[in-house]
What we know:
The protein is α+β, with helices and mostly antiparallel strands and about 500 residues long. It has 18 helices and 16 strands. The strands form two sheets. Strands 7, 8, 9, 10, 11, 12, 13, 14 and 15 form a nine-stranded mixed β-sheet that branches. A seven-stranded antiparallel β-sheet has the order 2-1-6-5-3-4-16. Helix 4 packs across helix 9 and helix 6 packs across helix 7 (about 115-125). The longest helix has about 40 residues, at about 145-185. Its cofactor is pyridoxal 5'-phosphate. One of its GO terms (biological process) is carboxylic acid biosynthetic process.
Amino acid sequence: MASTELLALHELLSDVTPNLLNEDKRIPSLGSGQLSTRHFYSLLTFRGVLTTFEPWVWDSLIPLKHRIFLWLAFRGRLNTRDNMVKKGWSVVAPFAHCDACPAVESADHLLLRCASASVLWGKLVLDTLACSAPDILAFVEQAQHQLSFKRKWNVAFAACALTLWHARNDRVFNSKIAERLDAFQASGARSQNYLAMYSSIFGGITTDPSAMVIPIDDHMVHRGHGVFDTAAIMDGHLYELEQHIDRFLNSAQMAKIPLPFDRSTIRSVLIQTVCASKCSQGSLRYWLSAGPGDFQLSSSGCRNPALYAVVIESPSLPEPSGCKVITSSIPVKSPQFAVMKNVNYLPNALTKLEGEENGGFTGIWLDDEGFVAEGSNMNVGFVTLNKELLMPRFDKILSGCTAKRVLALAEQLVENGMLSGISSRNVSVQEGKEADEMMLIGSGILVKPVVQWDDQMIGSGDEGPIAQTLFHLILEDMRSGPPSVRIPVPY
């Protein structure tokens, strides 16, 4: 009799083709064998819910989030890949296969049939999943009749099922993020090489550019509450690190950012970061932030300030070639913020862009009285008609470490007669444009001659001898200067 019914069923189903776009439904059987209006209505409205599992899924011993997860799993409502393909999610389609095996990723496969699930269920006493999923579900149903077993099994089953889901999400999202970050790094989208980064958030150094990240709730990111500084790396030595750290700490004090470590520890961290990078020529940049904590305006909710440092490789030296500058239309920073090296560089960036858009190298700021202030991220120097090296005063602008070192080295030119003197005072636009020479001074460019300001040529229109001499003096100082400005890196 059974074989006859099986053959009849096989013949009945022989012309049936499964439709993968529709969800399977389990139709409840009628115990009495009689059809009724109520039963027929239930057949029409049935959503495929495994009603036999409702009581134990909502067992109060199971944590609520586990109960909700199981309910969604049994209803086939998890965002497994087969469901996402059915929903037409273009990001997923047509890749509906499981991350751990070639099978289609469904809730049934992910939680019961997959090899990764087999390992976990094996630990939970089910030695193998060679039996079918209905057999396993039947086993679970039968276990409910054993009160002593029920309290253990329900919780264990729920915990393992959610663990499998979390493991799946970890494979999908974390691996994909890492892959995409690696692909971005390999695409050449970055024009510089970042060789190492230190972060006090994780308390260590990484050489993987994909791991060089800052928390989005760091107040330096969303409020600009941070300061920074830089130091050049030349021939395995850090140039003027002590001077830059002094300015760094002074900026932090003005920005009301407490120090995460004392000065000697910060210094040691910076040197170790360069050491880990193996970089012999480039730059070290470092930031001190109010720290992560929230998205409020005040940093009072930030528990700890954060220190970051990055080593950037720069194999080529700056060229002392002449350039054009323009008078910037971007409002200059107020002295209170201009004298501290803070991360609010939007005015600086716009000034640099404005200069480039007008065929120049950068823009030149004028202060509130109309005197020459500084460039976008560099100081300005002049050689007057009587051969005096002249720079604007540092009371309204950033006190450049490189500019100060240039002033010290320029004493040699006074001694040999190339310069008549050195001074720092207010410089008018007219005096600047009528100077014999003009130059930009900064750690990234060292000394760069300016041959044209707006529409006016400076001096003869060629790179001036003083600017070129100062460039070579500072370069030689970086290569063989005294220990006070050169710190060896213990690679």
